[in-house]
Design a protein that fits this description.
single chain; alpha+beta; 4-stranded antiparallel sheet; 16 helices; disordered C terminus
């Protein structure tokens, strides 16, 4: 390239950038309404070959059809749960988890927002609210339990592989350790599966939808684990049983229940005496074991509900032994015992942020109580909790700002009134003193319609005060509240009614019902003024003028680059001879364009990938696969099916629907989410689509597409 010309291009480029920047700075701020209008215009004028994004439920308006949005969300949640359970049954653990990712949680939150609407009068209908709440909870719990079941099942499979490897290598100790872990995992899977099925039964009652497929899939997964664990259990363990007998059924803290027991093994062998860990409910108990395996257990209830009608006694073996644990129940009827709580020492005077120390004892029937939870309060405000150990407690807590100033009662209490130990409390007087505070605010314009407010709320010594509400007024009109963060700072924005006049912001902490004193501060900002040029004339250029001038500059720059390119091309031809290709005729160019237009969906997908348009590539892949596999569905209404309906019908007619599921998931991401599909994922989808579109692939072939390709 000619050096002078090159420098000319640099100069023109720099000048263009400077001019465009200058125009941009001179253009007035575009209103939100203008931006919204532009977005709508762009959305309405998408190219014919582009698939528009679906409406985001996050952006539905009050005038939208809430019932339709609720139906869409219900279908989306149900589809995700169904596909996750099926993927789990097929041991596709990563795929099962993907269906219940953050997007599932987002959909549940949207469902809560939609179904949480009132009846239009401002009052909620209690029956509808209860039903909505149960459904919301069921969807959230079902998602959590499904994810937990997936994780547990995956861990079970991985641990079982380690167990089998240890057996093959003759490592008996490691095999038994893994077998013990498998036993624990199988029990967790059983409990989680039970909870999950209960949630689907609840959703069936609440929504009227059919969750039979999900329930059957979960039960199949659970049955497979039970069958596998039965084999492990027979290979590694000896089962045990507890034989229990009590002299009476009535028990209390004052009159504990004595239980005679015997631990037996199924093969008549004796478990080692030092390996007999016996517990009743959540209480670990020291057991004196005789040589014949008998023992005596004393059960003294404390926090159990008086409605308890049985207690569970459990034997837990050491992990290295060959014995399985076992559980047995004993019938019981509980009676209450009076509890006595006393405070021996306490802090008599305190203020915000200062510590209060309290210590005392808890006894019942002249015996020390152990492992009993107590609540600490100052007046009506809870300060914290403490636990009684060996009959005594000591706790230190900080005074929050929510405790009012003045003489208060410092109390320690056991609150439940339906437990084996009766409710009880003790209190002592405490004086809460007021704490001076300081509030500082600053305000500044962020644009022509918004003022940002920053501030701090601290004690006199500069310590930030967290979680307090600061009232805001803008030009004498209340504008809501803002809550201080962990270091006492606030940050928010307000929109003044008249941006052409000075704006005064007043921040106030009232301190009602608090031990923090009232504080107030204000800040005033001048109106935003538009920039003016010399001579008093306006230098502000309109957007169309700026765009036109910028277009001219860009056009000149492009023309200059083209001219330099032609000069270089001519110079190259002169140096290396005239071997240039003949120009393409208009007919040939038209033919090439027609061929591109007639590309198959897979060829289009390849071009889109080359251009980096991954979402378009995935959409083309899905179109190709759907066209290639539609005959499998045996229906004339294929065009009427959604992508999910197409997949479910396809799965019912083939041995392995995983490849189509992979393409369908990617299609959902390309069409329904804002983030584009990654290049690697799009390339993987293209490979799968090629397999599904291969003429050698038969839908009813038992081999996977990968095996068919290899074959």
């Amino acid at each position: 390239m000619n050096v002078v010309v090159g420098r000319g291009i640099v100069v023109v480029s720099v000048v263009s950038v400077l001019l465009l920047v200058g125009f941009a700075g001179a253009v007035p701020a575009v209103s939100n309404a203008s931006i919204d209008s532009a977005v709508v215009t762009q959305t309405d004028t998408l190219p014919e070959n582009e698939t528009p994004r679906h409406e985001n439920p996050d952006e539905y308006t009050a005038s939208a059809d809430d019932d339709a949005v609720e139906d869409w969300l219900t279908d989306n949640l149900d589809d995700r749960l169904r596909d996750s359970t099926i993927a789990l049954e097929q041991e596709e653990y990563e795929l099962a988890s993907e269906y219940l990712d953050d997007e599932y949680d987002d959909r549940v939150e949207q469902y809560v927002e939609v179904t949480g609407e009132t009846d239009g009068t401002g009052d909620s209908t209690s029956d509808d609210d209860d039903s909505d709440s149960e459904r919301q909870s069921a969807y959230q719990t079902a998602g959590d339990e499904q994810e937990s079941l997936t994780s547990l099942t995956k861990e079970y499979d991985e641990t079982k592989t380690e167990y089998e490897t240890a057996r093959e290598e003759g490592d008996d100790e490691r095999a038994r350790e893994r077998a013990r872990e498998l036993e624990s995992l199988s029990q967790e899977i059983e409990e989680t599966s039970t909870t999950l099925v209960e949630q689907y039964e609840l959703l069936t009652d609440e929504t009227g939808s059919d969750y039979t497929e999900m329930i059957e899939s979960i039960n199949a997964t659970r049955a497979a684990i039970e069958e596998a664990q039965a084999v492990v259990r027979s290979e590694q363990f000896v089962e045990t049983e507890l034989v229990l007998e009590s002299a009476a059924e009535t028990a209390s803290f004052e009159n504990p229940l004595q239980i005679q027991g015997e631990l037996r093994s199924a093969d008549s062998s004796d478990p080692p005496f030092d390996d007999r860990h016996i517990s009743g409910l959540d209480q670990s108990v020291d057991v004196q074991t005789a040589e014949d395996g008998t023992f005596t257990l004393v059960y003294r209830p404390t926090t159990e509900p008086v409605s308890t009608d049985s207690i569970s006694i459990q034997y837990t073996p050491d992990t290295e032994t060959a014995y399985l644990g076992t559980t047995e129940s004993v019938p019981v009827s509980l009676e209450q015992t009076a509890l006595d709580v006393d405070i021996h020492e306490h802090t008599p005077v305190a203020a915000y942020g200062e510590t209060v120390r309290v210590s005392g004892t808890a006894t019942a029937a002249n015996r020390s109580v152990d492992d009993l939870p107590l609540t600490l309060r100052a007046g009506e405000r809870t300060l914290g909790t403490t636990t009684v150990e060996n009959g005594s407690f000591t706790e230190t807590v900080a005074v929050p700002g929510t405790v009012p100033v003045g003489e208060r009662s410092l109390s320690v209490s056991f609150d439940p009134d339906d437990r084996a130990l009766m409710a009880a409390s003790a209190d002592r007087p405490i004086t809460i003193e007021a704490t001076p505070t300081e509030l500082e605010v600053d305000a500044e314009w962020t644009d022509e319609s918004t003022v940002r407010i920053d501030g701090t709320f601290t004690t006199a010594d500069g310590s930030g005060i967290e979680g307090e509400a600061i009232d805001l007024e803008v030009d004498g009109v209340t504008d809501g509240t803002v809550t201080t963060d962990e270091d006492g700072t606030i940050e928010t924005t307000v929109s003044p009614s008249d941006p052409e006049e000075p704006v005064t912001v007043v921040a106030t902490y009232e301190g009602d019902g608090s031990n923090l004193e009232r504080a107030q501060d204000d800040a005033t900002v001048s109106p935003v003024s538009a920039p003016t040029g010399g001579g008093g004339g306006s230098s502000v250029l309109s957007i169309p003028v700026a765009v036109a001038v910028g277009g001219v500059i860009v056009g000149l720059l492009v023309g200059l680059v083209w001219w330099v390119y032609r000069q270089d091309s001519d110079e190259t031809d002169r140096q290396h001879g005239s071997d240039e290709r003949p120009p393409v005729s208009p007919v040939e160019e038209s033919t090439t364009s027609t061929q591109r237009t007639a590309d198959s969906p897979l060829e289009s997908a390849k071009r889109h990938l080359t251009d980096g348009r991954t979402d378009a590539a995935v959409r083309s892949c899905y179109a190709a696969v759907r066209d290639a596999q539609q005959s499998v569905l045996e229906t004339d209404q294929v065009s009427m099916l959604t992508h999910r309906e197409f997949y479910h019908r396809y799965r019912a007619n083939v041995t392995d629907a995983t490849p189509l599921l992979t393409v369908t998931i990617a299609y959902e991401r390309a069409v329904f989410t804002a983030d584009p599909v990654s290049q690697d994922d799009a390339e993987a989808v293209l490979r799968t689509a090629k397999q599904l579109c291969s003429t050698d692939s038969s839908p009813n072939d038992d081999r996977t597409p990968a095996e068919q390709t290899d074959g």
